[in-house]
Amino acid sequence: MAYSAILGNDLVDMKDIRNRNRAGDKRFLDKLFTPEEQQLIFASNMPDHMVWALWSAKESAYKIINKCTGIRSYVPLSFEVKLNDVLMKPYIERQNANVEMKNNPGGTNLLEGTVSTPYLKAYIKILLTQQCIYCTACSDNYDLESAKWKVINDPSVSDAHQSHAIREAAKNHIARSEGLNPEDIGIIREQVQGQPGPPLVYINNKKDKNIDLTLTHDGSYSAYAFIKQQSKFS
Amino acid sequence: MGTSETPISREAVQAKVLEVVKPFVKDTALLETITDKTDLINDLKVNSARFIDILLDLEDAFKIQINDKEADSILTIGDAVRIIMSKQTHN
């Protein structure tokens, strides 16, 4: 049986002053988080980071839904994040996933869990550092483990060039993974109902439906995640 | 501004909506071609996290409450104006 796993991702630059001191903003919290999620925030020893960790999880799940259905409807309170363990654990870099962040005091921590939505359940991995929150979500827990991704921090890249820079980084990684040259890879966002759709991977000018790619950026950070669809048999 | 006492014109509401949105748009050149159909996220490149801040600022600016369903229906400048105008009509 053909099988498709879909990815979504999101990141938050904690250096942006507008992302700070939100854990005490009750109006803000009530718009976005269920009472159970607010408890997670209040119980955390990094409450502001937990705010954006939960937010990035919901956003990542929303991206999966939007990619699968084209639906833009998004009521954050109808997306419920559950964490496997409220305690953050140190993140250990893997070969297929890494965080390129220099001067990263405190190291990188990991949260894992799920986001239940009206449309699907997404599985999440959230990385937290002092300066950045990053989430990868996948429609399948097994495939989340095999997703390849990278977070890049480059304050020297302007907003206008950030999109180009992260696409180039993703192209290079996909090319390495597929045994191709980066110039064989294209990343294109087609218009869907007059709006830019999700990024699509082209190999030698032909759309590759087996590679699912997701991109995100905020502030000086950008990130990509991709997955090669696996064939499973029922 | 008391929305229930003195309803303001659609043009005035739109102008005030643009005032609220402006600080959240990095590329101010994008503000020069705004119409009702201008999409906050896709056209003005408003960060989705900042979209919530826009909602809160609209609530403050117009002294209204925007519920989840209404917030979900706001994709464009015109959508925001429509929601705010409807609250004036109903108050």
Please render the helix and strand layout as text:
The complex is a heterodimer of chains A (234) and B (91).
Chain A: E1 7-13, H1 26-32, H2 35-43, H3 47-69, E2 80-83, E3 89-90, E4 97-100, E5 109-116, E6 121-128, E7 132-138, H4 141-146, E8 148-153, H5 159-178, E9 185-192, E10 195-203, E11 206-207, E12 211-218, E13 221-228
Parallel strand pairs in A: 4-8
Antiparallel strand pairs in A: 1-7, 2-5, 3-5, 5-6, 6-7, 8-13, 9-10, 10-11, 12-13
Helix pairs in contact in A: 2-3
Chain B: H1 10-21, H2 48-62, H3 68-72, H4 77-90
Helix pairs in contact in B: 1-2, 1-4
- What's the level 1 CATH class of chain B? Mainly Alpha
Question: What's the order of the H and E elements of chain B?
Answer: HHHH
Please report which band the strand proportion of chain A falls in: under 5%, 5-15%, 15-25%, 25-35%, 35-45% or over 45%.
25-35%
Mean pLDDT of chain B: 89
Mean pLDDT of chain A: 88
Say what oligomer this is.
heterodimer
CATH H-level name of chain B... which superfamily? ACP-like
Q: Which outline of chain B best applies?
A: globular
Radius of gyration of chain A: 17 Å
Secondary-structure element pattern of chain A, one letter each: EHHHEEEEEEHEHEEEEE
Q: End-to-end span of chain B in angstroms?
A: 13 Å
Summarize the structure.
The complex is a heterodimer of chains A (234) and B (91). Chain A has 234 residues and is α+β, with helices and mostly antiparallel strands. Chain A contains 5 helices and 13 strands.
List keywords for this structure.
heterodimer, A: 234 residues, alpha+beta, Ribosomal Protein L22, Chain A, 6-stranded antiparallel beta sheet, 4-stranded mixed beta sheet, 28% helix, 35% strand, globular, B: 91 residues, mainly alpha, Non-ribosomal Peptide Synthetase Peptidyl Carrier Protein, Chain A, 4 helices
